[in-house]
């Protein structure tokens, strides 16, 4: 099927290339004009075709001819065209730009961007599904006059009035509400409405996309100022909304979205965590109706994702609520991209390539499509903040400095665990925390407790030699999990290896083990022991499995079925739970002392976000932080609550040390079955790069074993490149790098690594 607005002018048969899904990296075949003419039809970039490669049919995407030399010449003609103009020229330009940013081929980007399975097999056709009928009221002026309305039966008049109020509605939906099909048809015969067939999955046209302003709550002065600033400066494309937790950022997103939808432009509303999609989706649907609002995330099936993809291409204005991969949706007339919780690491794809950051792709769309970008957070990244405050920065800052209704930010209580120990209290849970938790149920209040690890305990250690039980495939220790019957088993959180608790230490042969560190399971057990009657829920990757796992658990908690939610990092992210008055973190130290340049920034972001869960309703909130380092600067900034001050300190430190974002880093990761082969491959790449670095200000550091030097049986090495801020990567094309590697060694290039 060809959508008229997407079709590309057909050319004379020119040489074209086809990207083919074949092998790890895909292939690019070039066809001379004769081979890509199909029975008089001419192929064009953007078509999806079937071709033959080494005797086997493959599906591929037609692109403009790639520069000679690189791709292989095809010898056999293209077999058939599966879909014309599947990809628009504008979208193709986005692929090329992202490929360049991520130092990879457009084909790799395409594989990430398209719904999976799309290139690999025949795309599901819409032909077999039933088209649905939609009743569309005719505009009052062109419909038969008011005399004609007077001749309608009262029931017909009522239906007409309802349709004029609601806009077009599917006939089936009207039937469900008690309007008979005969009645709908009669109204059509009278010329008051038309009945239109609609392809499945497509939007009901028009409808009240944008609600009347009177129906909305009045904006706070800060919200109004932010929106006015954006309206006053249409040339300024990129904005950072820095608003403390609970300051009403979402309302700013929705109002801004409304303006774009009203002007027939689409909106992408992105969130870092799939668990946050339902909440945003619901708020958006309440505001803009069911039809104009879609969800796009990894929890959908391939065919659901393909359907959203197709609806985007139809071109009617939509609001899509999605996670990272939604940034590639081919929305024509894109007006606004919102990245909520812009500081969140989930916006970065670590692997496979392209290792893109959603904000970088969004900025490319801003440049190519002229849309706006709104980043929002209570704890913006240093990268973003810097682009607001430095001279020449291209991002403009908007602030929401206080919570809605001037609710206070929660008070922070730091519990020095050294003091607890000295007093002979050796438990996981400090006395102040136990006290506060015990008092919750009587007041009808709730708490969230953050524990950095899932499982029972972090590792199992031998009582006589102290060795931790390692994963047989990875360079990490196994985490202890508990079954319902109380027995333990071991699991690797990296490769998912599972095993029973060993009977003998692999090191010294001893048979006695002791669990160390606390995971979510152990904290729940401990709380149940210490505070009988407290109702507990666990919120981590193990307890939220399944399609709506997140949503179900959160709903239980929101409905008051538990007093305390014990969970991992995902607990801190963006949830709006008005009855939570206490947020606690048990082992803050693990976050504080990570050997990473962003450790302090990320720890403070996490703690402030966690604090943001408390006291969002009418009652004030409190935060309890258990730590062995109460004097750590992250804890100090948490207590004083001035994140801006922290950013200034952090910027000064990193600038002085010449670190990201005041310099540029690029990480080459190598993985191969044999340590020696992988290491020498990495050394080979360093030697290859050496001459390119001369005079560029770039340095190569390493190669060295990765922090976890073996994962899932693969040995991992890395080579870090460090260079001046804003300078180009000193790398040859990715394909050249790969060619100089042994086949077994896999290379990932990360042009903007989050973890160093
Ligand atoms: P944030 O995203 O900044 O953490 P939210 O957008 O979730 O904050 O807003 C917090 C709460 O305040 C929500 O329950 C929201 O409905 C409410 N809210 C937002 N704006 C207003 C307003 N102008 N007037 C009244 N309540 C508001
Ligand atoms: Zn031992
Ligand atoms: Zn493992």
Report what the structure shows.
The chain starts with 15 loop residues before the first strand and ends in a 6-residue tail after the last strand. A hairpin with a 6-residue loop joins strand 23 (488-491) and strand 24 (498-500). It has 756 residues and is an alpha/beta fold. The strands form 8 sheets. Strands 14-15-13-16-17-12-18 form a 7-stranded parallel sheet, sandwiched between helices. A 6-stranded mixed sheet has the order 7-2-1-6-5-8, with no helix packed on it. A 6-stranded parallel sheet has the order 19-29-28-20-27-26, with helices on both faces. Mean pLDDT is 85; it is low at 1-11, 120-130 and 200-208. The chain contains 22 helices and 33 strands. The structure holds adenosine-5'-diphosphate and zinc ion (ZN) (2 copies). Residues 217, 219-220, 223, 243, 245-251, 404, 576 line the site of adenosine-5'-diphosphate (ADP).
